[in-house]
Amino acid sequence: MASLADYHVHTSMCGHATGEAEEYVLAAISAGLEEIGFAEHIPQYWLPEGERDPEIAMPESRFEEYVRRVLDLCDRYPEITVRLGVEADYVPGREEEMLRLLEPYPWDYVYGSVHYIGSWGFDNPAFVSRYDEWDLGELYGTYFDLICGAAETGLYDVIGHLDVIKKFGHRPDEPLEELYASVADRMGRSGVAVEASTAGYRKPVGELYPAPRLLHALVDRGVPLALGSDAHAPHEVASGFDRATSELRDAGCQHLVRFEQRRRTEVPLAPVAAL
Q1: Which of 17, 28, 158, 210 could form a disulfide with 232 if both were Cys (CB 3.0 to 4.6 A apart)?
Q2: CB 165, CB 143: distance < 8 Å
Q3: Residues 8-57: pLDDT tens digits?
Q4: Strands 81-89 and 109-113: what pairing?
Q5: CB contact at 8 A, 40 and 230
Q6: Of all residues in the chain, what percent are helix, strand and coil, respectively (each to 5)?
Q7: Are 257 and 226 in contact (CB under 8 A)?
Q8: Alpha-carbon distance 188 to 152, whole Å?
Q9: In whole angstroms, how far apart are CA 155 and each of 146, 160, 172, 190, 193?
Q10: For the chain, domain boundaries
Q11: Phi, psi for 27 (deg, rounded to 5)
Q12: Considering only the top CATH level, what class is 5-268?
């Protein structure tokens, strides 16, 4: 059985995480991981005024430095495989600019995510009160249409923290099975992989992204799954992986995906005794 990989970690370069890239690699080695993948936030966030916020993504001036740092770690630590990834927010209408930033570099994978509905950064604790302005059923429909739209662009290899809209515990009163089935169908048709993100365990919602019923719907449709911690500090590397792999097995998942130069392969879901 192959050991595990953490494909979603950030560093201080994004402006809202701590620790240098080397510290994350050392943490991954200590945790017994076979691979670690960096997925730093691409400098592609826009405020209503059209300016970029340096606290939620690395500045464009440091983009090449980020790539060089990760590639250097690939050579310096042969005992672990280090993957070069990036997290690129889906902003409808900004696809060409995103491609311009991505095209020059040898990515192993590109994560897609949604953190904004219009100008509202809904996962930012500073703006959590705006959930009260929505009918939650309508909000969930709007969010999932955006995240499925991201998958359907064909620009991404993995969709990250699929149901992050639940981060602070806001959920519609109505049953979500029909919505989850639609999301899983669209993800399945898109061909993209979906992240099983342990970050949800560390948030107010206190559960895996995706939620158990959504996870089952994805597995039932054969949607490939990757594993990530969304670590924003070195000690969070592989955080919650034992719990997550148990949930994945209970849902019927038998394989996880790996990436190299944007080519996807499957590996058996590994035991976690070493973690």
Answers
A1: 17
A2: yes
A3: 999 999 888 999 999 999 999 999 999 999 999 986 665 545 556 667 78
A4: parallel
A5: no
A6: 40, 20, 40
A7: yes
A8: 10
A9: 14, 13, 30, 10, 12
A10: 5-268
A11: -65, -40
A12: alpha beta
